[in-house]
Write a structure and sequence with these properties.
The chain is mainly alpha-helical. It has a domain at 12-53 and 105-204. 36% of the residues lie in helices and 3% in strands. The protein has nine helices and two strands. The chain has a two-stranded antiparallel ribbon. The relative contact order is 0.14.
């Protein structure tokens, strides 16, 4: 877009509003050996996300992440998605700048239609793990053909909500009321609601998926 070599067809926020993306991950053995440090690290991340979501702080954040140890890009490039608007670009000189205040959602942005307090973007929702698992199975990304019966146990290990909740409580922050929340149809590009109470029905309801039986007509 900036150098005249390409433009944006769509952005991931258009595919799934409020979706999880970047993660803070450690080995369980490290958490077991350093429980207080693990919680302090999560608390610091919560505070950093809150800071980054304040529009007035975004340019400072852009200056930092543009540096060589991080994105290593021109400030102009890095701020393209960080200031509340986004230019989809094009080769016809038309202005396709759109207001997208939640393009980068670190914690919570006012005015979204899919998140209400005390919901926030960095809570380890178990339902997010369930949705991601349905897609891994759908596209043969893992060695599973069906949604596993012990999925909730697997997801709970990967999304350690207890650590987050301990850190949030220490900071005096409110915690989302649901770990398994319904993702409304309006959040997805295909207009399909995801109810974590029925991941199997959601998974099997896709007409397009890897491994789906195909009909062939022979002449």
């Amino acid at each position: 877009m900036f150098d005249g070599v390409g433009f944006t067809g769509t952005v991931d926020r258009d595919v799934w509003k409020g979706h999880p993306e970047k993660i803070l991950a450690t080995m369980q053995a490290w958490i077991d050996a350093n429980p207080n440090t693990a919680r302090a690290l999560v608390a610091a991340t919560i505070e950093a996300c809150e800071y980054c979501d304040v529009l007035e702080n975004r340019l400072e954040v852009v200056e930092i992440i543009s540096a060589r140890p991080y994105v290593n890009a021109k400030v102009e490039y890095a701020k393209a998605s960080m200031t509340g608007t986004y230019d989809y670009g094009g080769f016809d000189d038309k202005d396709r700048t759109t207001s997208i205040p939640d393009f980068n959602l670190f914690n919570y942005v006012e005015g979204t239609d899919y998140m209400t307090p005390p919901d926030n973007a960095n809570y380890p929702y178990q339902s997010h793990g369930a949705w991601l698992l349905t897609q891994m199975i759908r596209w043969n990304q893992i060695d599973l053909k069906e949604y596993p019966a012990d999925a909730d146990e697997i997801i709970a290990k990967i999304h350690p909500y207890a650590i987050y909740e301990d850190a949030a409580k220490a900071l005096g922050r409110k915690i989302p009321t649901e770990r398994m929340k319904v993702e409304p149809a309006s959040s997805f590009i295909d207009g399909r609601e995801f109810n974590p109470a029925d991941p199997v029905g959601y998974l099997t309801g896709f007409d397009i998926r890897a491994g789906r039986p195909k009909l062939f007509a022979l002449r």
